[in-house]
Specification:
The complex is a heterodimer of chains A (282) and B (528).
Chain A lengths: L3 H6 L13 H13 L16 H19 L22 H10 L15 H14 L11 H9 L9 E2 L2 E2 L9 H4 L2 H9 L11 E6 L4 E8 L3 E6 L4 E5 L3 E7 L8 H4 L2 H12 L9
Antiparallel strand pairs in A: 1-2, 3-4, 3-7, 4-5, 5-6
Helix pairs in contact in A: 3-5, 4-5, 6-10, 8-10
Chain B lengths: L21 H5 L20 E2 L12 E8 L11 E3 L2 E6 L3 E6 L5 E6 L18 E3 L2 E6 L3 E6 L5 E6 L14 E3 L2 E4 L11 E6 L5 E6 L29 E3 L4 E5 L21 E6 L5 E6 L15 E7 L2 E9 L4 E6 L5 E6 L6 E4 L5 E3 L10 E3 L13 E3 L4 E8 L2 E3 L17 E2 L7 E8 L4 E8 L8 E3 L3 E5 L4 E6 L5 E6 L9 E5 L2 E8 L2 E7 L2
Parallel strand pairs in B: 1-32
Antiparallel strand pairs in B: 2-38, 3-4, 4-5, 5-6, 7-8, 8-9, 9-10, 11-12, 12-13, 13-14, 15-16, 16-17, 17-18, 19-20, 20-21, 21-22, 23-24, 25-28, 26-27, 27-30, 28-29, 30-31, 32-33, 33-34, 34-35, 36-37, 37-38
The chains are: A alpha+beta (282), B mainly beta (528).
C-alpha cells in the first residue's frame, strides 16, 4: 500500500492532514492523531538500554520510520540531527519514547505509537542513544553577533518572526533550532531554494488589467490566496485572473554566501541553532 | 450525525420494499435510479446513464444535505443507494443507513476495533455490497460481517484471518450469485494474500484463492526458499466480474518485503498481478503479472475495468487497468493475453513493455541504502482510487500522480505481525509530485486530455451520460469536467479532502450526486 507518505513529506497536501507519507503516511498520521492522546504509558528508563541486539533491532525499525526526516545515520535533515546527544523535546529516555510514540505537537514530528510496538520504540531509543557522538566541536559562531545580523545587515527579520517580532512572509523561527539540523539550517541560509515547502513557494498572479501580484500563500485548483512583501493580503478565484503560477523558488535572497562573510554566516547559524522556543513557566 | 438542508427539501418520497436480487446486480447499469454495487456495474465502469445534470445544467448544481459521521479518519466509501436509502461505511468499523430525502440517520452500526492492530494506512473502509435485504462489509480486524439492511442488525460475522499476524481488511466486498467475494490487506506485515468467497446466507466460506502459491504449487518456483511464506500479495480493492465468462478479476498487491527483493529472488507470483478466477470454485483461470519481482511497492490492486472494444481492427473482450507502475494496460480478459500498454506519467524504471507484456527494466533502479531516484514514486503513477469508463465517450478516466521518489532499502528480519517492508521512500526535496486527471482511449492507450492539478488528486472518478466527469481533490473541491475536453465546468468546496469516488442516482426522478468528503457525506442536486 503506501501512498500518501511521500506526499506529506513533500508537503504536497496544503491541508494539515497528513503524516506518514506517500499514502501510508497520510492514513497513518490521521489514525495516530486520534489515538496518541491515550497512548503508551511506559517506564521512565529504557529496559533495553545498551543491549547490542536491541540497538540492531532499533536500527532496523529506525530505517522505515525515521530516515525520511532524520537521515539514514540519524544525521538529520529536515528533522533534527540525532547524533548530537541532545534532543529537542527532552534528553531522558522517557522523553525520547514520548516523542516517538506521540509526536511533537506543532512540529512535523508525527507520533508512531500505534504503528510501532512499545518494545520496538524502546529499541529505537537504544539505537538513537548509540548514535550520540561526543566529539562534536562547539559552534564557532557568536550567537549575539548573529542576532544582530539577523535584525540588521542580514535583514532576516523583515520576513521571519522570532518570538513575536518580525515579518511572516517566511517561516516563523522561534523554535527553529529544535526543529532543524545544523546542516539543514546552513543549507537553508545559503541555498534557500534547495528544500522549500509549498507554502513558501513564489506565487505570481496577473490580474486582467495586467497588475502583477507576487508573494507567498495558498494555491488550489480554483482559488489563490497571496500575501505580498508589503504584507497585503489577496484572495482570488483563478478564473478571474489572467494567469496564476507557482514557482518552487523562495522569495528569500540566495546571495548570502556573497553578501555575508563566512564568519558572519557562522554567527547567524549560532543564533538560529539556539532559537529553542519559549519554555512553559509557572 | 447532523444534517443541514441547503436546497429546498422535496416534500415526500415513497419507495417500495425492494430486496436486491442477483438479476438486479447483473442489470445494475440499466438501473440508473440506484447504485447497487461498488463499481456501479459488474464491469467496474462507474458510469451512469443519467443526463439531467449535464454540461449545460451543471452550473446549477448545489448541495442538498450533509451527513457528518462523527467518525475520525479518512472516508473512502462508495455509497450504495436503493429502497430510498443510502448505505455508507466509515472508518473504524462505522456504518450508516441514511434517508435519501433528508440525510437523516436511520441506523448506525459500530464495532469497536481491537487494540493492537498493525495497519499500514489507517482503519479505512471502502463500502458495502448488497444482496436481498442484506449488506456485507469487512471490519478492520479482518472479519466479514452481514447486516440486516433494514435495521443494521448483525446477521453473521466471520473471521477471515488473524489480525494479530498483520492481516486487516478495508475493501468493499463483491456479491456474485449467492457468494460474497472479498479481499484482505496487510502485505506490509509479511502476510499471505488471499481472495475469499462466503455463502451470503450462512457466512460459510465457499472457496479461498491464495495469491501466493505454497511450496510445490504452480508458481512457487518464482520464490526463493521459504520466502513465499511472507510473500504479501494482498487484495485490498474490489474486483470486477464478467457474468458471461463467469470470471472474477481481482488485482493483487506488492510482494513482501516490499523494498528488499534480495530475500525473495524470482518473479514472486502472483504479486502485482491481475488474477482471473472461476466464480464458482475460485480456481485460477489465468494471471497476468504487471511488475515481476517488484521492489517499489507498486501494487496492482487498481480497478480492473471490463470493456468490449476494437483493438487494431479486432473486437476484444478486454480488461484494462491504470497500474501503479506508471503504465496503462489492456489485456484480453478471456485468456489474459497482453494487448498493449502505454506510460501515462513519467516512467524511468522501464524503457517499455515487450510484446508479451513484460517490462524492459532499467538496471540500477532497485532501492539502496543511500536512496535511488525512481519515477514514479512509491505512491505510483496511479493507485487504488476508483476509475471510470464512459460508454458515451469510450474514454477511461483516472487520476495520475506525476513525480518521483527516493527508494531506500535495508535488511529486516521477519517477525510475525510486525512491519516487514525493509525500508521506505522519501520525497525528493523541492521536487514535489504533481497530479492530473486523465482521459485515455483504452483501445490505444493514448491520452486524450489531461487536466493538471496543483497537487496529486486523491479522489475517485464518476462519468455520466450528461457528458460529465466528476471527481474531487486534496483541497476539498468536488469538481465536474467536460468528459470530452477536460474543461472544468463546476466546482464546490466541501470543506474536507475527497478521496472517495462520487456516485449518482435519482430521488423522485431528479438526479443527485453524492460523495464522501472529509468525514461527511455530501449530496447535490440541481437548483430550480
Amino acid at each position: 500500500m503506501h501512498l500518501y507518505q511521500s506526499m506529506r513529506n513533500a508537503g504536497e497536501f496544503d491541508s494539515a492532514v497528513e503524516g506518514r507519507y506517500s499514502r501510508r503516511l497520510l492514513h497513518r498520521w490521521i489514525a495516530l492523531a486520534v489515538t496518541s492522546a491515550a497512548c503508551c504509558a511506559q517506564p521512565s528508563q529504557n529496559p533495553v538500554a545498551g543491549d547490542p541486539s536491541a540497538i540492531a533491532g532499533g536500527g532496523a525499525a529506525f530505517r522505515p520510520y525515521c530516515t525520511p526526516c532524520h537521515g539514514i545515520k540519524g544525521e538529520g535533515g529536515r528533522g533534527p540531527d540525532l547524533t548530537r546527544g541532545v534532543y529537542s523535546a527532552g534528553d531522558k529516555d522517557s522523553d525520547l519514547y514520548n516523542v516517538i510514540a506521540n509526536g511533537v505537537p506543532g512540529t512535523e514530528m508525527a507520533g508512531f505509537g500505534s504503528d510501532i510496538k512499545e518494545e520496538d520504540i524502546w529499541r529505537i531509543v537504544a539505537f538513537i542513544r548509540s548514535l550520540a557522538r561526543h566529539d562534536i566541536p562547539a559552534l564557532s559562531g557568536d550567537r549575539a553577533a548573529g542576532e544582530k545580523l539577523f535584525w540588521g545587515k542580514g535583514a532576516c527579520g523583515g520576513c521571519h518572526a522570532v518570538n513575536g517580532k518580525g515579518g511572516l512572509l517566511g517561516p516563523e523561527l522561534s523554535r527553529i533550532g529544535r526543529e532543524r539540523s545544523l546542516a539543514f539550517l546552513r543549507e537553508s541560509v545559503l541555498e534557500p531554494n534547495r528544500d522549500i515547502k509549498h507554502e513558501y513557494a513564489t506565487i505570481t498572479a496577473v490580474k486582467r488589467d495586467g497588475t502583477k501580484i507576487i508573494g507567498v500563500g495558498s494555491l488550489d485548483n480554483f482559488t489563490v490566496q497571496i500575501t505580498d512583501v508589503a504584507g497585503n493580503y489577496y484572495s482570488f478565484s483563478r478564473s478571474d485572473l489572467a494567469s496564476c503560477t507557482r514557482e518552487l523558488k523562495s522569495l528569500m535572497p540566495d546571495n548570502y554566501s556573497r553578501s555575508l562573510k563566512p564568519a558572519e554566516i557562522d554567527d547567524l547559524i549560532a543564533y538560529l541553532v539556539n532559537l529553542r522556543g519559549a519554555e512553559a513557566t509557572q | 450525525m447532523k444534517t443541514a438542508a441547503l436546497l429546498p427539501m422535496l416534500t415526500a418520497a415513497v419507495f417500495a420494499a425492494s430486496p436486491i436480487t442477483e438479476q438486479n446486480l447483473r442489470e445494475a447499469q440499466a438501473d440508473s435510479a440506484n447504485w447497487l454495487t461498488y463499481g456501479k456495474n459488474y464491469l467496474g465502469w462507474r458510469s451512469s446513464d443519467l443526463t439531467e445534470i449535464n454540461t449545460k445544467t451543471v452550473s446549477r448544481l448545489a448541495p442538498r444535505w450533509i451527513h457528518q459521521s462523527g467518525a475520525s479518519g479518512q472516508h473512502e466509501t462508495t455509497p450504495l443507494v436503493f429502497g430510498g436509502k443510502m448505505f455508507v461505511t466509515g472508518p473504524s468499523n462505522h456504518a450508516f443507513a441514511l434517508d435519501l430525502l433528508t440525510g437523516k440517520e436511520l441506523w448506525h452500526y459500530h464495532k469497536v476495533s481491537p487494540v493492537g492492530l498493525d495497519l499500514c494506512c489507517g482503519e479505512q473502509n471502502r463500502g458495502f455490497a448488497a444482496l436481498g435485504d442484506r449488506l456485507f462489509k469487512v471490519n478492520i480486524e479482518t472479519t466479514l460481517v452481514a447486516l440486516d439492511a433494514r435495521s443494521g442488525a448483525v446477521l453473521w460475522e466471520r473471521q477471515m484471518a488473524d489480525y494479530k499476524k498483520g492481516y486487516s481488511a478495508t475493501g468493499a466486498p463483491l456479491v456474485v450469485k449467492n457468494k460474497v467475494v472479498v479481499g484482505m490487506a496487510g502485505a506490509e506485515f509479511g502476510t499471505r494474500g488471499f481472495i475469499d468467497a462466503y455463502d451470503a446466507s450462512t457466512g460459510e466460506r465457499v472457496w479461498r484463492f491464495n495469491t501466493i502459491p505454497a511450496k510445490g504449487e504452480p508458481g512457487s518456483e518464482t520464490w526463493a526458499g521459504d520466502s513465499w511464506e511472507h510473500g504479501g500479495g494482498s487484495t485490498w480493492i474490489t474486483g470486477t466480474y464478467d457474468p458471461d465468462l463467469n470470471l472474477i478479476y481481482w488485482g493483487t498487491a506488492n510482494p513482501g518485503p516490499g523494498l528488499d527483493g534480495d530475500v525473495r529472488a524470482g518473479d514472486n507470483l502472483y504479486t502485482d498481478s491481475l488474477v482471473a478466477l472461476d466464480a464458482d470454485t475460485g480456481k485460477l483461470k489465468w494471471y497476468f503479472q504487471f511488475t515481476p519481482h517488484d521492489t517499489h511497492d507498486w501494487d496492482a490492486v487498481e480497478d480492473p475495468v471490463l470493456i468490449d472494444m476494437v483493438v487494431k481492427g479486432r473486437k476484444v473482450k478486454a480488461v484494462v487497468q491504470a497500474n501503479r507502475n506508471g503504465f496503462f494496460y489492456a489485456l484480453d480478459r478471456t485468456n489474459g493475453q497482453f494487448l498493449h500498454a502505454a506510460p501515462f506519467t513519467k516512467v524511468t524504471w522501464a524503457t517499455g513493455i515487450d510484446a508479451k507484456g513484460r517490462p524492459t527494466a532499467v538496471p540500477g533502479m532497485d532501492p539502496s541504502e543511500s536512496g535511488v531516484k525512481v519515477c514514479p514514486g512509491l505512491g505510483g503513477g496511479h493507485t487504488w482510487h476508483a476509475t471510470s469508463y464512459s460508454p458515451q465517450t469510450q474514454l477511461f478516466y483516472f487520476n495520475s500522480i506525476d513525480g518521483c521518489g527516493l527508494f531506500y532499502r535495508n535488511k529486516q528480519e521477519f517477525h510475525e505481525g510486525q512491519w516487514y517492508q525493509a525500508s521506505t521512500d522519501a520525497a525528493i526535496p523541492s521536487e514535489p509530485s504533481g497530479g492530473s486527471l486523465l482521459a485515455l482511449d483504452p483501445a490505444t492507450g493514448q491520452t486524450r486530455w489531461r487536466f493538471e492539478m496543483v497537487t496529486p488528486a486523491p479522489a475517485g472518478m464518476l462519468s455520466t451520460a450528461g457528458g460529465l466527469v466528476f471527481t474531487g481533490d486534496g483541497q476539498g473541491y468536488l469538481l465536474a469536467l467536460d468528459a470530452k475536453t477536460g474543461k472544468p465546468l463546476w466546482h464546490f468546496q466541501t470543506g474536507g479532502e475527497i478521496i472517495a469516488p462520487p456516485i449518482t442516482y435519482t430521488l423522485n426522478g431528479k438526479q443527485q450526486i453524492a460523495v464522501a468528503a472529509g468525514t461527511s457525506i455530501v449530496t447535490f442536486a440541481l437548483m430550480p
